[in-house]
Write a structure and sequence with these properties.
The chain is of the alpha/beta class. 41% of the residues lie in helices and 12% in strands. An 8-stranded mixed sheet has the order 3-2-1-4-5-6-7-8, with helices on both faces. Strands 11-10-9-12-13-14-15-16 form an 8-stranded mixed sheet, with helices on both faces. The termini are far apart.
Length: 595
């Protein structure tokens, strides 16, 4: 019988000299020692090696050295060895051991004895301030802070008090040689982008732990609703669930209002599900990673849609329904409002359609009209409420809908922050009501959050999904509580960002750059808030804070001030966060001058 036993390399076979030639045979300009070849250190070593730098990988764990040895030649450090070999000859040293401060201090103290004077050392400590490490590390200490080690195009760089200018220039030069953009930030636990986003990621994990929504639906909602390339739970998987859990726990211990890590993180880690590095976490990776979505039966939704309301969201939903082939009626409070809404919808439809007379065209646009005649409700198959975000107004409308609509009419509220049950219970038809939360602009945004009430029937949900499918939307399903998925994650994140600005932890420009570049966000939080509107953010944050089942802080003082000063963002001609903070700084008088 043939012997198929694999021989695992031993540490005796590890290269201790340069065994992998550099690109084109020329020596790289810098030698970088990476101490600690776990997930973060190995990712850094691979990135620096791919960029052509001379990398020495250092670890006292033989298994870590073997893992590094198995990398492809283009990613494997030129030298793999145990401590302290390689430290003294390095132009820059990166400490990448696990996060506990005591371990960091011990390793940094050992490095101080080995590295040459003037050689900068970078620590990957995210939760420990540099001031707590500098006595052990010595001068020329910096912190390299980021969210994901698999996405290292940009990092936040903090500088210890005794770090010299020459060392700082060397750090930036080495990072630039590796194609890594350095954003200079102050020294605070969690830094900027990592700390802000970890809070959001943790709340996403709590949603799954609470059974509020599935991991797939949470990730889909944030990808489609916020423009993320990966959802928050896939991001946690990329970080490593054990790493994320430990960092979240330490940040929580430091205060600042961060919630305790979601218990599902402990549960998954205990099962060996550490995320992408183990092949499974919230999702599966590698072979068999493709998930089979449940195929649900499609029920005929009906053709006659009535959209109640005349504002931006109502006209957008009506336009989407007309484009989806429904016979659509926009029901406004007056003929004047109906005429104004009709003009907006006409203009929108004509932009992308050769037919301008409202009849069905080759793009599938069905007939539509706008009116204030409420008799249209008597023949509606589907009613979508899109009136003002006021609970009593919505309850009065649903009481009317329950009386005049046919027995099997689908009754949907498009509320973005109010409880669906409270809005719709006056209809007296619990089996036929649900939430259908569109995103603005409704004709373009591909996501709809589908929110069943306590007694919404399976048949109603199937018909609701069929409506969304005909509109070209993807639905995610979640429980009935304030904010649903997207708003419940997004607005506390924006609120926390304002807290950092108010405390002087960052400028608006630095914060937006860090969140875009290091955090991978399509928009920085300042620009996003100005786009949404501070008044909208304040109202949503108040409702989230009042929701008993949520762990949401009160609105930031700066958010209240923005609304009071009518610095709402784009809707107030550019008077937003930046302009308000600039004006506030200009009018503040130092205490010494005032005296």
């Amino acid at each position: 019988m043939a012997d198929h036993t694999r021989t695992t390399p031993t540490t005796d076979s590890l290269p201790t000299t340069d065994s992998v030639p550099s690109a084109e045979g020329a020596p790289p300009p810098f030698t970088v020692a990476v101490v600690g070849l776990g997930g973060t250190g190995l990712a850094l070593a691979r990135r620096l090696t791919r960029a052509g730098l001379r990398v020495t990988g250092i670890d006292d764990d033989p298994a870590a050295l073997v893992r590094a040895l198995r990398l492809s030649p283009g990613e494997r450090p030129r030298t793999l060895t145990r401590f302290p070999a390689g430290v003294a000859s390095a132009d820059l040293v990166i400490e990448a051991v696990p996060e506990p401060a005591a371990l960091k201090r011990a390793v940094l103290a050992s490095l101080r004895e080995q590295r040459r004077p003037g050689t900068p050392v970078l620590t990957t400590a995210l939760t420990t301030p540099l001031g707590d490490l500098e006595d052990a590390a010595g001068p020329d200490l910096f912190a390299l802070r980021f969210l994901r080690s698999d996405a290292l195009d940009a990092v936040e760089l903090a500088r210890a008090p005794r770090a010299g200018d020459a060392a700082a220039a060397r750090v930036v030069e080495v990072l630039a040689a590796a194609g890594i953009k350095a954003h200079h930030v102050g020294d605070r636990p969690g830094s900027l982008a990592p700390g802000l986003l970890l809070g959001l990621l943790n709340e996403a994990a709590w949603m799954v732990h609470d059974g509020y929504a599935s991991a797939e639906d949470v990730d889909t909602a944030v990808r489609l609703g916020c423009g993320w390339s990966d959802g928050p739970l896939a991001t946690l998987d990329a970080i490593g669930l054990d790493t994320a859990r430990d960092v979240l726990a330490r940040l929580g211990d430091l205060g600042g209002g961060l919630r305790a890590p979601a218990p599902i993180l402990d549960e998954l880690v205990a099962q060996g599900a550490l995320g992408a590095k183990s092949g499974r976490g919230f999702h599966r990776y590698g072979e068999g990673a493709a998930q089979r979505r449940t195929v649900r039966p499609t029920a005929p939704p009906g053709r006659n849609v009535v959209v109640v309301g005349s504002g931006t969201m109502a006209t957008g939903i009506a336009e989407a329904c007309a484009r989806g082939g429904f016979r659509t009626t926009l029901l406004a409070r007056s003929e004047e409002k109906a005429a104004a809404a009709a003009e907006r919808i006409d203009f929108a439809l004509q932009r992308n359609s050769a037919s301008a007379d409202g009849s069905s065209d080759e793009n599938g646009t069905a007939s539509w009209t706008a009116t204030s005649d409420r008799s249209v409700l008597a023949s509606a198959d589907i009613v979508v409420e899109a009136v003002v975000e006021d609970l009593e107004v919505k309850r009065r409308l649903f009481a009317e809908l329950g009386k005049v609509c046919p027995p099997n009419t689908l009754l949907a509220t498009s509320t973005s922050s109010l409880p669906v049950g409270a809005c719709t219970e006056t209809a007296g038809r619990p089996a036929h009501v649900f939430g259908l939360h569109f995103f603005n602009p409704a004709p373009l945004m591909p996501l709809v959050e589908l929110v069943p009430g306590e007694r919404t029937s399976a048949h109603t949900l199937a018909r609701a999904r069929a409506v969304a499918e005909r509109l070209g939307k993807q639905t995610v399903e979640c429980g009935d509580r304030a904010g649903f998925i997207v708003n419940a994650l997004l607005f506390p994140y924006l609120n926390e960002a304002l807290g950092l600005l108010d405390a002087g932890e960052a400028t608006t420009a630095t914060l937006d750059l860090a969140l875009k570049s290091v955090g991978g966000q399509p928009l920085g939080p300042v620009r996003l808030l100005d786009t949404v509107g501070a008044d909208v953010a304040l109202e949503v944050q108040r409702r989230l804070h009042a929701e008993p089942s949520l762990w949401t802080p009160a609105p930031a003082a700066l958010l209240e001030q923005l609304v009071t000063a009518r610095h709402l963002g784009r809707k107030t001609a550019g008077k937003g966060v930046r302009a308000y903070l600039t004006a506030r700084a200009a009018t503040s008088v130092p205490a010494a001058v005032a005296a």
